[in-house]
Structures are given as C-alpha cells and as structure tokens.
Amino acid sequence: MPLRIAEMDTPLAEPIAAALTAAISRGDTGYAPAGRLPEAFAGFAARHYGWHPDPAAARLVPDVMSGIVEILQIITAPGDGVVVNPP
C-alpha cells in the first residue's frame, strides 16, 4: 500500500479527536503561522548537517509536493527535464 494512503480502519485517538473538535469549534481551519519553526529548523540543520539556512528565508507550504512544485518553478525553465525518484 502506498504511504500516501491513510489507514481508515484504525479509530482516531481520543486526544486527537478532541484537539480537532476544539480547533474546528474555534474556526481554526487555516494554516498555522510559522512561529519559531524557521529558527528551530535552522538550529537543527546547523547541529546535524553543518548547514546554516537563514530563518528569514523560510516559507511554509501546505504539503511537501506543493513545496517541490514551487522550488522547481523557481529553479527551472519551461521544458527543462527533472528527475523525481519515488520513495
């Protein structure tokens, strides 16, 4: 079964259901603000990879594929070839 398919036979954990219900009752159905995530990621990248990304350059995307599409549109020209290896 592909990893992108959710397992629907497993009941939702009660704490997760409660958190979702509370968020919906608040009308909180949009994307979360970045908060300190860019700084946390920059620290993680520095510690683990010696890479020092600028937290101010970080952007949130709704999912990984949206992010990949955005990056490819920035770094490639129409007609360029791109190889994407599936997991």
TrEMBL record:
Cofactor(s) annotated in UniProt: pyridoxal 5'-phosphate
Alphabetical UniProt keywords: Pyridoxal phosphate
List, alphabetically, the Gene3D superfamilies matched: Aspartate Aminotransferase, domain 1, Type I PLP-dependent aspartate aminotransferase-like (Major domain)
The keyword Magnesium is annotated on this UniProt entry? no
| Entries under InterPro entries matching the protein | Class-II_PLP-Dep_Aminotrans, PyrdxlP-dep_Trfase, PyrdxlP-dep_Trfase_major, PyrdxlP-dep_Trfase_small
Q: Does the keyword Cell membrane apply?
A: no
- Name listed for the protein in its UniProt record: Aminotransferase
